[in-house]
Amino acid sequence: MTVTTLRRLTGDQKHAPSAHSTLDVIRVLYERVLRITPETADDPDRDRFLLSKGHGPAAYYAVLADRGFIPDGWLDRMGEWHSRLGTHPDRVLIPGVEAGTGSLGHGLGLAVGVALGLRAQGYAQTRTFVLLGDAELDEGSNHEAIAYAAAIQLPLTAIVIDNQSATHGWPGGIPARFPGWSVSMVDGHDHDEIEHGLQVRSGRPHLVVAAVETKG
Amino acid sequence: MRETFIATTTALLDEDPRTALVLADISADAFGPALRRHPDRALNVGIREQLMVGVAGGLALTGMRPYLHSYAPFLIDRAYEQIKLDLGHQDTGAVLVSIGGSYDAAGAGYTHQSPGDVALLDTLDGWTVQVPGHRDEVPAMLRAAARHDDRVYLRLVEQENSRAYPDAGKLRVLKRGGPLVLAVGPMLDPVLAATRDMDVTVAYTNTPRPLDTEGLRLLTEAEVVVVEPYLAGTSARLVSEALNGLPHRSLHLGVGRAEVRNYGTWRDHARVHGLDEAGLRRSLQDFLGTGA
């Protein structure tokens, strides 16, 4: 069970709220949406998920362990010497991780590239998802990717976990920062709502705003 | 060192209305009192490091003295072009203060590490780079930087020497003997430990830019070893220029270029890069011969 698995993870107390805020979205992704298993983790037409909000990977690791991508035993040594699990994920060390992240504002640009690469190679059914935090939207690189994805009608899905942690907030709402994108607003803990938002295929970039309790 | 920086910079904000602080969320809680007391010039722009440097450049254009702060990879690597253009190209200055260094954030991985920060600044003109080896070296650096408008980078890390040498802007000799071993910042204690029974001269500096090239030339006879807590060889060009015309052999020790995909602590990473006592001793003996 993922919640139990998550409790095993220690050594990252600072980012614990970030980890828990993403848990339900990542569970729904892996349990209901993504076409990927440990056996297909290297298939070129697998769906892709990038955790741009790399500073809260505990939930991600817990789901990867529950789904069989990594052994449970890895969870007890996160951040230690000779552990494969850092407090930010590294794609070179962890099966199933698509991108090494931790520095904010990189995942969305990478996801645009992944979606373009898949499209260029004819993988029309393969979907690309990227998860960000609302505070992470501060980084200007996100807004370059948002505008470009809209301009080229790129069908990828970005999930923003909204725990109202952006330093100066987002007056007008987060969707106003995604012009040209279709939008779903969901309860970040309601699995059916999350799934409904993630299943939208609008023919253009799609934003899922997953609201959770306010940080702190 | 981080706490010393916060206390000193908070005091500077209280004392001098020319002082400004620009943050990008990192350490905003610790600077809470300063942000509340000086909302017009103590600013947190959010997680926007490029903007942090741009805002600082603008503040400097109006005659203020901005202090900026974040983890080294976000402050230097990420905002490099803003540092180059919004400060250097405008012929203005600021005081950049980083934490994290090469591998303090060992458990966080490479995204939070910047072994190349000083090398990046070396591509630019007019930067003073200070690498304190002890927290008590930090206040004087910050206060000195408040008295002018030049470009200053302070690199704060967890690793510290057992004692402070506040007067180590120029090379300070701590041990006299044979070949010169120059230790930068927190490399001093491991260098002293590694060379305790070697016939070498050990000099220390906490200000590698501008490098005390005159002192380096005076102290070098035929062999010099530079031990830096960032990319190995960062100072090689300056050492070569300083010793121009003087036949010599040099060895540059520091952090390797290959990414260490491992976690643990800064001590684990220091060991892997050969910057602990045992690693330094091996490198020095290989270079100088076991009779050194």
From TrEMBL, chain A:
InterPro entries: THDP-binding (IPR029061), Transketolase_N (IPR005474). Residues 15-198 form the Transketolase N-terminal domain. This is Transketolase. It comes from Actinoplanes palleronii.
TrEMBL record, chain B:
GO terms for molecular function: magnesium ion binding. InterPro entries: PDH/Transketolase (IPR051157), THDP-binding (IPR029061), Transketo_C/PFOR_II (IPR009014), Transketolase-like_Pyr-bd (IPR005475). Residues 1-164 form the Transketolase-like pyrimidine-binding domain. PANTHER family: PYRUVATE DEHYDROGENASE E1 COMPONENT, TRANSKETOLASE-LIKE PYRIMIDINE-BINDING DOMAIN-CONTAINING PROTEIN. This is Transketolase.
